Each structure stands twice: as C-alpha cells, then as structure tokens.
Amino acid sequence: QVQLVESGGGLVQAGGSLRLSCAASDRTFSSAIMGWFRQAPGKEREFVAAISWSGGSTYYADSVKGRFTISRDNAKNTLFLQMNSLKPEDTAVYYCAAAKYAGPYTSWSSSISYDYWGQGTQVTVSS
User: Fold this and answer.
1) What is the distance between the alpha carbons of residues 29 and 17, in angstroms, rounded to a whole number?
2) Angle at CA of residue 116, ends 115 and 120, nearest 5°
3) Sign of dihedral through CA atoms 106, 114, 49, 70?
4) Contact between 6 and 54 (Cβ < 8 Å)
5) Are 125 and 93 in contact (CB under 8 A)?
6) What pLDDT, in 10s, does the model give residues 47-105?
7) Of 49, 25, 27, residue with least CA distance to 37
C-alpha cells in the first residue's frame, strides 16, 4: 500500500524555523518527483516546492524562495522541507505528494501532476 506520512508541524513564532518530514513507502519513493503543497483556511491548495528523484533539481514557489529548502534522503525514503524565517502567512496544512512520472511537459507546481498524497501536518506561525 502506498503511504506518505508527514510530521514536524507545530506552532512557531514569526522568524522561527521548522523542519517537516515525509516518510514514504518504497514504492512511493521511487517516484519521479516529490513535492510539498499547503492549504490555508478558506484558500485553495498551493504549490510550495518540488524535487527530482536524484535531488539534483528543485523548484520553489516565489513566496518561499530563499526561505524554504526541499531535500530528500533516498536511503531513508524521506522527504524534507526546512522552513526558515517563517511568516504568519505561512500558516497552513502542509502536504507532501509524489508523482509517478515526470516528463518534459510535466508541471511540477500543479497538483494534478501528483498521484499520491499524505494526510497533512499543521504549521501555525504566530505574529
């Protein structure tokens, strides 16, 4: 059974840091790309960051560029999101996702490109 399980969310003050983790089953982690999305109350789910299978390519939303870093440890089947300089507007439920296939026309920032999703972890940033 394919599983993605996020952890590491919590409450932090503005300017603080959190590190999210996403533990994946073997089958999921062989996926072509993996990503992080987030959804704030009353808003649509939005792209945060994505990474290739090798880790050699990464892609970020403009809103988090320079503050967040996505990485993966294939030996441990784990995806990470290091979040620094957090802002209240970063408050959301964060989801990890995996795509089985990524071709030259695959949109890394589109949720429809991803086949598997975790259950989400809450991140709350207080001002």
Assistant:
1) 26
2) 135
3) negative
4) no
5) no
6) 999 999 888 999 999 999 999 999 999 888 899 999 999 999 999 999 999 998 888 88
7) 49
